[in-house]
Amino acid sequence: MRNIINLNNDWLFAKNSTDVNLREGEAINLPHSWNAIDGQDGGNDYFRGSCVYFKTLKKSELPQADLYYLEIRGANSSADVYVGGKKLAHHDGGYSTWRVNLTDEISEETQIAIVVDNAPNQTVYPQMADFTFYGGIYRDVNLICVSKAHFDLDYYGGYGLMITPVVENGAANVGVKVFVKDLLPTHKLVYTIYDKEENQLDQIVTDQTEVNFTIQNPHLWHGRKDPYLYCCEVEIVDGDVVLDNVCHRFGCRSFKIDPENGFILNGEEYPLRGVSRHQDRWGVGNALLPKHHIEDMDLICEVGATTIRLAHYQHDQFFYDLCDERGLVIWAEIPYISRHMPGGRENTITQMKELITQNYNHPSIVVWGLSNEISIGGSDDDLLENHRILNDLCHEMDKTRLTTIAAVSMCKMDDPYLQIPDVVSYNHYFGWYGGDTTMNGPWFDKFHQTHPNIPIGCSEYGCEALNWHTSDPKQGDYTEEYQAYYHEELIKQLFTRKYLWATHVWNMFDFGADARAEGGENGQNHKGLVTFDRSYKKDSFYAYKAWLVSPEVDPFVHLCSKRYIDRVEDVTKVTVYSNLPEVELFVNGQSIGKKTAKDHFFYFDVQNVGESTIVAKAGELTDEGTIRKVEERNMDYVLREVGAVLNWFDVTVKEGRFSINDNISDLMKCFRGKMALLSLGLTIKKKMNANKKGNQEKKSGGFEVNLKGGNMDGMMQMLGGFSILRLSGMIGMMGVSFNKEELLKINRKLNRIKKPKELRK
To answer: What is the value of pTM for the model shown?
Structure first.
């Protein structure tokens, strides 16, 4: 009978080492990441290299078994396993389960060393992306003890069990296939199906590795409304003795993605409106415990999401199980992201095989993601061929699900790589990185009109917010108020277009991106609806909750901007979100009126005199805050960049003239402004080339783009909402930096350029 022994405790750890005979080091337990701190504090200087984990197993403490397999559920990004100094295995890819047969090396004291390496290379994805590539053994490590006859443990980290329910004509045909090793003629396979209450529904005893069950009138897995799960167990038996067993839950459901009507679940329209999720958190990195996954799932359910894009890699099996249980519809993908590497094709294939093999049975998963923003540097024949290979592989391994990609804004609608997957989604940030919020809906309408037979969705959209505040929110100010405004507008545009097969906010949680230096808190991407430590739900969280959560399930009222107390204006705008139809606002106990809002966003003008207690009331529910009239703006609410050579309020601004505080899109409105941007672009290009010559590729951990031809125009359009000063901080992710003197020189040049009349105040 199979025994699984958890080996998380009592390891020795040595940083920046490959000593497989380690006897001294830091005592640690798994899960563990060596970048839990330096991978999220900014500077793009977190340690990337080799580290050693060492552990001794005593044979006397192990159960009797024919075979012993070491199971590693996540070691980023490459790893080698040594036993007694002998190398047994190598694995590339930091987000999947893999196993090593230790049987022949087991002794009275078995010394295991695992060398894990997250150093940059040209063959293992990801190597360039807007998140931290935390090193470490950051998921469980187990010892699987089995008999000689067993379910296959060697094939891409899978269970040795594939369950394929097909729902047709009021019945579910459940195909079950197993992968076994070393069965004898006397051995039998016992297949059993159980319902959710663990009642046995059917059983087949055979020597065949493929069987079919029929469930009449199956209880369907219907997303968040009814995530019903069955279970299939298969045993290898020799007479009355069970030699090995595997089991997995499954759901009976049908779905399709329609270009006009979006996602269809079990024959019903089921709008996929949700979020993307990165797995890391503050002070932990990606070494999450079950309680962390559960907290994430609770928050995602609270906001009302029906779907999650699990970006940008394979997530923990524990979280996929939670998705099955809670009824979230899932986009699962591999980390083929940002930069196509000609030497990385085999790694994309291996990671896709692992993703599908290990996650095939999860009813929550409906699409396999081939890549993310991979065309940011332009498409070429090798990239297209890689995608065709992956697309064909997905359909060969799984005939029940669809494929998708996440394309970046700069990818043209007629790019041939959009024709490869079954469905397409785009990452758009109009209103944050470029353009304005009104551009989002019309862009999707144009795509839908141009390609009426290609289902289109929005795989990323969002903007950053920290604890900065203003009564006059503007694009790029990093205030909670602008983020709330942005999401109000995007909700109204995206959620009312039923043809969008799925929409995913970027991101549910702030996450580590050590190359980032913006927003006043370096080392993070702050587009989350919830903070990195999960302690604070930003106002925009409640905008989604108002739209997505029924008042019968969780009625609520939320007063926005409660952290914004000191205000200079005589009349201030107060925003309230609620899923109830009517909100009444009280100021110092006096009602100033009731309002209804079909869009769930309620706006009130409040006289700002002295200190006022504001109470929003919807039904029997209330939420309370305070505002206070001040004569001068409280600078604690104003963005101050950490470690910046200049902050916006230190810049010399001349009336009617440009400065580095002005946006790229405004500079593009006049000839001299365009020339100034061209000059700046050439300077950035020179700095990038100098970095490459200096072999500083490690410093370009965020982004690297091909600035030739039309791609430069696309990049400038995408960055139109950036000020020159903000851009100077962002390009630090490409290893490009400007010192104070250089920025002041650019500012002096811009001060000589008159603004067009429409921009003068």
So the answer is: 0.93
